[in-house]
Design a protein that fits this description.
Elements: H1 15-45, H2 50-77, H3 80-103, H4 109-137, H5 143-172, H6 174-192, H7 210-223, H8 227-255, H9 260-288, H10 290-309, H11 315-346, H12 352-381, H13 383-403
């Protein structure tokens, strides 16, 4: 699967990637419903503040901090498709418990945190296996384009999912809206069962022990000349993103006075930008170079959150946050395919699981830190000041990456 690419080869000529793409699209759609619905559950159903949103978010990402490296070893030792199917079916079962707990009167912030921690553990397994699966489905020359296709689907889901979520929350209440995501994970798992991929059998790769294998992944990630600054910059990016994302629901619902459906529209606008960014990602990477796209996108992310922070509590004041979320989606959509293509191209297949798990685990550890801190600061100082602190963090991340010379990296290109 990692061999050379025939002239004129296209993603559509690889049906198993198309099946994988379909599964990711279905589950991604439901995920945006749950993201908004869980935040509304905390703020409206359980009557908590931004601190509560931060605690639930922190619980969601805590497994990445605790067992991320070990999961990376597991992914490199195991057939990845089976892990993906099991994680999807498990997440469907866990999310189903949210409306059940609500219906029986047992839903609490503690139980919601427990459900989201279990959901986070399965998501950790799924994320590490999913990102490590793509290089087994397409050759190196198609990696950036494959990631762009996945991003485009995610952007469409972000555009429609929050709007649907707002409507579902209004009609069904937030806990029952979560059930939509449970169904999406069930459908994704069934689709993945049909994907065929050439994977080495368990035990085919020599094993040197969990600790030694985990250490090898860490050395590769933080010892590489260009992956190290990219990883460190991304860790800082996630602290800022966690803080901003934690206060955004309360900022939108309470400071800007949006209804849940209005908040869904605000998030959906970001999906429109994300789709535009993902559609242009390959072209931008080819013309400017992947490194320049990543650095420029991170500067643009800071500008997008600055526009969001300038909103006011009347209809004209919602316009600037809407533009900000549109620009945010545009920058993230353009960046992600180029960044992921670079990660996957530079990392050997035998290290894909560990590298992806370690990187994502530390990133999510930054959420475990940034989300509750952002929530506490938001409740104590106000939501807008936290957004401005996040803007400063995004700028620092971008400038640090540029100073390390990452803007000079390039990726191989491929035909349409």
């Amino acid at each position: 699967m990692m061999g050379g690419m025939a002239t004129g080869e296209r993603l559509r000529d690889r049906p198993d990637f198309v099946g994988f793409w379909a599964a990711a699209t279905v589950s991604g759609f439901g995920s945006y419903v749950t993201t908004l619905a869980v935040q509304v559950v905390v703020l409206v159903t359980l009557h908590e503040g931004a601190t509560g949103v931060g605690l639930v978010s922190s619980a969601r990402w805590l497994p990445y901090l605790l067992v991320g490296v070990l999961v990376g070893v597991l992914v490199d030792r195991t057939r990845r498709r089976g892990l993906l199917v099991g994680a999807d079916l498990g997440r469907a079962a866990l999310l189903t418990s949210v409306p059940v707990l609500a219906a029986t009167g047992h839903l609490s912030i503690g139980l919601l945190m427990a459900v989201m921690a279990g959901f986070g553990l399965l998501s950790l397994v799924h994320d590490a296996a999913s990102q490590s699966m793509v290089p087994r489905l397409v050759p190196p020359g198609l990696l950036t384009r494959a990631n762009a296709r996945l991003d485009q689907s995610d952007a469409v889901a972000q555009t429609s999912g929050p709007v649907l979520a707002g409507a579902l929350v209004s009609v069904l209440t937030a806990p029952w809206a979560v059930l939509v995501d449970a169904v999406s994970y069930l459908a994704s798992g069934l689709l993945l069962m049909r994907v065929r991929v050439d994977e080495p059998p368990p035990g085919a790769r020599p094993r040197t022990g969990v600790v030694a294998e985990a250490a090898e992944g860490l050395r590769w990630l933080y010892g590489h000349a260009t992956l190290r600054p990219l990883a460190l910059s991304t860790h800082g990016w996630f602290v800022s993103s966690a803080a901003a994302g934690t206060v955004l629901p309360a900022y939108a619902l309470r400071t800007l006075g949006l209804a849940p459906w209005g908040f869904g529209v605000l998030i959906a606008v970001g999906g429109v930008g994300g789709l535009a960014g993902a559609l242009s990602a390959v072209r931008l990477g080819t013309r400017l170079g992947a490194g320049r796209v990543v650095v420029a996108a991170r500067v643009t992310t800071a500008a997008a959150w600055a526009m969001t922070a300038l909103g006011a509590g009347h209809w004209s004041g919602w316009l600037l946050p809407g533009v900000g979320q549109l620009v945010l989606g545009l920058s993230m959509g353009a960046e992600n395919a180029n960044e992921m293509g670079y990660w996957q191209t530079m990392t050997p297949d035998r290290l894909q699981g560990r590298t992806n798990a370690v990187r994502r685990s530390v990133n999510r550890a930054m959420i475990v830190i940034g989300a509750p801190v952002g929530g506490l600061l938001g409740d104590a100082l106000g939501y807008r000041p936290v957004l401005w602190l996040a803007v400063l963090g995004f700028l620092t991340s971008a400038l640090g990456l540029a100073a390390a010379g990452f803007h000079r990296v390039q990726l191989p290109t491929s035909p349409t």
